[in-house]
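Aim 2 progress. For Alpha-glucan family phosphorylase, the working sequence is reproduced below.
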Amino acid sequence: MTSEYNQWHMPYTPAKEFNKKVAYFSMEFGIHQALKIYSGGLGFLAGSHMRSAFELKQNMIGIGMLWKYGYYDQGRNGDQTMSTNFIEKNYTFLEDSGIEVEVKLHDNPSVKVRAMVLKPEIFGTVPMYLLTTDVEGNDYLSKTITNHLYDSNYLTRISQSIVLGIGGAKIVEALGGADMYHLNEGHALPAFYYLRDKGVKKDQMVFTTHTPEKAGNEERDGRHLNRCGFFGRYLSEPELQQEMVNGGMINYTVSALRMAKKSNAVSKLHAKVSRDMWKDYSGISEIIPITNAQNQKFWQDEVIEEAHQEKDAKLYTKRKVELKKDLFNAVLNQTNKLFDPNVMTMVWARRFAGYKRADLLLNDLERFERLINNEKYPVQIIWAGKPYPYDFYAIDIFNHLVHYSKQKSNLAVLVGYEIELSRKLKCGSDIWLNTPRITREASGTSGMTAAMNGSVNVSSNDGWMPEFSKDGINSFVFPVIDQNLPTWDQDKIDSDNLYDILENKVLPTYYDKPKKWQEIVFNSIDDVLPEFGSNRMAKQYYEELYK
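Predicted structure tokens for this construct:
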């Protein structure tokens, strides 16, 4: 039986203002707990975008990768420290589109790439084409390209970009082509080179840059990429010279910024940081801010929403206790600790990376011990998150927190931070702790979905926070410090400020002024929606990037 998705097909007549055909390329999509093809924020963002595009009846498709082992399954070793497990996934709900294309990779002239379709009715997204090289007729090495999201092998990573970019562009061609090609981050850069050669015009290509982190802006040797087939054909020396920067390198972000008619950063602050970061490179496109957002329908608890609409504090409190109990069952199951729903609960949960400072609370152990042993204002703290499987510095921080919290009845470190646990943490927490070093977090969307569920942000003023926060009214924000200070000094000042905020503002308000606390919670939900809901974002892309 032929799939109706072997050509450009929508389950609805697209809305007039969203009629342009857009192909959206992303290395990861966080669509549903059961579809493990994401690692973190970039995926959650892309997943929310696909849901909102569907809700708004946009004429858009997603192009992604079908990762056979996902990112990784986060488990525990015998001593409760973190283990990294790679378990094969099979998705019988995906449909074979019947479309297969070939790409040239390294010395192999014809690696087969097949597109599996996630149909809209499965999870409420626009049609999504997930690419795999685990295909009959490919040699063993080619079959393993789509095994692991962000594979640690240098050559495999390059191959993944070629499969997503050139393979993805060829899939879109087979579907009948698109009006706009949107790269979410630089991973699919080969698409732009391939499309440019095919006569696709500059004003059909747009780009989203996501991170000020060096590791997130890939840079690789130009001659080596040329040999690998990165550009869709072999570039002559003068052609290659035109593309290279920094002494013979191809910087994925610079190339994408140059080839796109327009690009966007993912918050207003990030747009400033990005413009400054890339200002010395010639020929880059304008970088506008389109702040990241998350899908309300998917992430917000319905009863919390109802309580907020009615401004019903009683209903809110009753529901919050239920949601806390649900979260605390997960805590009990994983750590054998009984948490109390009447105690203020703080959560730090996101990807573990050094600059996000999961252990900032432990900077001054004396003060931290005072905080967690305060009988007048008791607290419970939960950490969760996945480090990159080979980021041993971040894994070490994770394990340090495991060992430190083991014997403490009000501290817990959870594994398995994926969509389901993320939802429980956002719904069941009172405080959402966000501690990146300033300007290092491009947007940071977890605090948005936490706020939708009445979890109050306590945060450094980074990413999306300057657009949202009203200190003491809808959140609590660290005082601004000089970001040029040595990191050691920044961490010292920020941790001192964090203890002060918790001891003098957050805990006394929560316990002594419950009415005031409830007001902050409702203000927070008021201000996060609709401004940081992804329907606004999906609209803005059509109005400002695709027009």
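The chain has 20 helices and 19 strands. This observation will guide construct design in the next reporting period.
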